[in-house]
Write the structure tokens for this entry.
Amino acid sequence: MIKRPFFGLARPSLKHPVVVNREQDSVEEIPLPQKVTLFLSPHIKIDDIILRAGDKVITGQRLKLTGDGKDYLISTATGTITGISEYTGYLGQTCQAVSIEAAGDDQWDDEFNERGKTTSPENALEFFNYLPGNPDFQSLLSFQPPVNTIIINGIDKDLLIATNQLVFKTETESLIEGIEHLKKITRASSLFITVPSDLTAEAEKTGVPVHAVNPVYPNILPEIITKNILGRAVPPGKRCEEMGVGFINAEAVVSLTRAFAEGKIPVDKIVTVINKDYIPVNIRARIGTPVKDILKALNIETEHGDQIVLGGPMTGTAIYSEDMPVSPDTDAIMVLDKKRIVLGSGSHCINCGECVRACPARVPVNMLVRLLENGLYEEAAEQYDLLSCIECGLCSYVCVARIPVFHYIMLGKYEFSRIQSAEESNA
Amino acid sequence: MHNQKLLVSSHAPYWHNGSSISGKSYSFMLAALPAVIMGIYQYGLPALGVLALSISCAMIWELLMDLAMRRPVSIGDGNAAVIGLLFAMLLPATAPWWLVVAGTFVAIIIGKQIYGGIGCNPFNPSLVAIAIIMLSWKSFMDFNEALVNYDLGFYMVYPLSAVKHMGTSVLSNFSMTGLLLGQQAGGIGTTFGLGLIIGGLYLILRGHIRWEISLSFLLGVFVTAYFFNIADPDKYAPPLFHILTGYSLIAAFFLLTEDSSSPVNFVPMLIYGAVAGFLTVLIRNIGAFVDGAVFAILLVNVSNPLLDKIRPKAMGKGTEHA
């Protein structure tokens, strides 16, 4: 927890770490796990899955999930599928997970090498959904009008994480190559790079226009970048991609380079592990590695009542089991001591206005939370800018009454979308 | 199952800046301390008695209400204690015990709890209580009557009533420095201007109250009083006198800035403060009451929800067709 400064006139200033010294950021390798677990997206239903327990798979293999072959999975280990199990997703929905028991050394699959190596949008959609760094080619490629501006994130979206900066610092060459691949895949007319000002020299080597961003949270969130750099404000309820602006992490760009250079789909993810003392360690782990194995490799002990968060302190997701795996979008694993856990209170809003002043989207949070507490989701969206929220979490961070404001907002958005889809299906 | 290691799950964010309602309440109490100590120094044990009784009664009413309504006990957040403290600061040191008990009852139950507790009160609870006491037991709130047995070595007529009834000729009895240093009759915690300003600045710097409200209130008082003063200098006191007497300073920093009944957006805060200042002087100069701060603030409290409708457009709103 970062304490509020004694003098509290200004907005909270949460700084991203800036990577200056390369030696400090050596990446530790995590040994291959016994078992990997791969999460499937929530829309895939268990009855449609054609994978079966006992199927043999090899590393990098593109596994068709459903009969029509559209949904797929990239296996990250060589071994046998042991089962398809359920897990509870962020919104409480039931999702499926495929577990693979690893058997010895990796054997690499050849399908990508044989037919995936041309840089086309189709191939990107067909092979790159599970690339480390989690590039969202689905939204980069399938919006109409198409995304024409792509911003390469040199700063991670959450605090304490510096994976993308590390890529800029240490892998400039493959970044340059990856940008060429990205240009061919997306045919975007303009690309930008956002980095903290300390890294502009490295970023300029890529030949892509660079914007130095003050690395203070939440300057790096897509909506704020779109507004500050491109001067386009994203209307409430719309995505940046609908405005023609897409985002990709530097880590994902480098993954593209590795895929094309080696003819293998990369299956390792750089993860920042933040221990109880808030000292981050960078590791490289196989996607699907259970959190348990990583903590064990780093000698991090957890106790009953601690908290483990996948992602950073502002936008991460707490997990309920150490068996949860590293996903392509898991930038960090944060272990919080039970003394440092922030629990929300059931207090009313005291109308102090801290959240209103902290909100980068100028949402009237004090009014919004009153409506959300009472379940008035439609009114909240229509009158109090529920959908303008850009999900930074600063309202909860500054709340004097410790109301879980961000939680209320996410619940409100979810319930509102359910109301809307119910209305549409009844119309 | 008992040996199983369970992890705590909650929603993001996993950090908090450490602020809390109780921390805020303690800061208020700390900020009020200079003025309170001065009050105890001037009026002695009776003042201490009123303060102690008021704070403890406020907390007891809060506790009883929590129990009666089967809600979690909320005296730990210090809000009831702050309400009791501010209420006592507004009272004369001679206030009888039953006045304090009745006043805190009004403050906590009618001022706060019946609306749903902290954050739900449309009026400042301490001021609701003072207003009702002022209307119900007028003589106890008349500082000239209440403090008739005190002689603290300075002009003991309540400055605002002196000017109201005798015109600005009495001003020669007051010096601005004297007023600032507490040499005036008044409530226990309302007379020591310097202490209130120090406390207020502390709260502003800590971020517990908003400078917009305090400053615009003082400006509102100043400008309104200034125009009255140039219109008829024999009848109406100069602006600085209005700022340093009565409830002006405690209102600017402690009463008007109460969270629940004050706006949160920038422009509304300025309007809110300025209107309160304007009304204060208006009631003082041409109204029936000696000090207008109480009713002025209660009036602007009502306008708070309406004022807060003036707010900036959310990001991306209204730009769709731009």
User: Anything to note?
Assistant: Chain A has a mean pLDDT of 89.
